[in-house]
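Q: I'm writing a short methods note and want an example of a predicted protein-small molecule complex. Could you take the sequence and the SMILES for pyridoxal-5'-phosphate and return the bound structure as tokens? Please keep the output block clean; save any remarks for afterwards.
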Amino acid sequence: MINNAKLQPVGTAVTELDTPAFIIDLEKMENNIDTMAKYCKSANVNLRPHIKHHKTPEIAAKQIEKGAIGICCQKLSEAEVMAQSGIENILITYEIITKFKINRLMEIGKNANLIVLVDNPNNVKDLDEASLHFNTNLGILLDINVGQNRCGIEPNSTLVESLSKQIISAPKLQFKGIHGYAGSIQSIANDEERKKADSLSMNKAEIALEQLKKLNIPVEIVTAGGTGTYNLTSKYEHVTEIQPGSYVFMDNQYSNVMSDFDVSGTVLATVISKPTKNRAVLDSGMKSISTDQWPPKIKSHKGITVDTISDEHLTISLDTEDAKQLNIGDQIELIPGHNDTTVNLHTHSFGIRNGIVESIWSISAHAMTR
Ligand SMILES: Cc1ncc(COP(=O)(O)O)c(C=O)c1O
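A: Understood, no commentary inside the block.
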């Protein structure tokens, strides 16, 4: 096995940090975690944060320490990493299909209380058989399409009845309730429009719940909501828990939606070339800062705009006399457009307090796509 690139130790000044580096302003991150935890307590709603955003067991542990009832994972591989780190309550907000994956799911279930989503009777049958074979209990949520048109059954579909009855009759499967995450509305910047869209999606969840009520099927969990709707979704009486992720680091896109949380996760880069007085090039390209949603924004300097980005280079325009003073070797801090996909590009994060590296965390679930 070939070793990863050498890491500088805790205690290194941020000004000396090798780049590109994913850095965390620890104070801001802790405040974000605290703000969400306090909100959920005061709103009397359970918090089960989504770790697809930070992919770091140490951060998940901090969220749980502040009162989160467990975590959400998107991929089975994330759940494997989190369970290995000792986290016991894991909701996988995903459909787990194929024998190989279901067997892996059952392995995780030996050490953690697992809940998964379903939207298909064949999958319920496979989960039923595997849970009996491995003698493992498994919580199940019906995945309801509340407007994103991704996975999930329609709220008024006969599948609400047939799938829930199928789950209830499976000895090792526990019917827990419904999952109704509406990702497409999280980034609506206009507050009123986001509120309206959230209300429409929560009405859809209610339609499925009405069906279950008529069938006298008890519902323990109704989970929904992300960072963009945390304080909207949580107000619906039927919602028992919310699953925000991005509030931890935030990003350029989310900063446009709300100001309740500060950007704490950024990418530190270094100027490697200054071919003209108006143009400089940074060492951070698409392989260290994602461009799937919004372009990165310069945090540390004024008068600089992001021009073009390629694999390992980011070209910037120096628009003011001050900005033109930038030299080769200077550092620039960038706010990623989308931090979920940026974090996924890094193996480690560097936690900074008072200009010094205080923590180096392995982003243990980085690049885990299976
Ligand atoms: C199913 C699910 N739940 C929760 C989240 C977290 O949402 P956010 O990052 O907007 O807080 C996501 C994000 O993509 C998601 O896909």
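A: Remarks, as requested: Residues 105 and 219 are 23 Å apart (CA to CA). The domain at 45-248 is CATH 3.20.20.10 (TIM Barrel).
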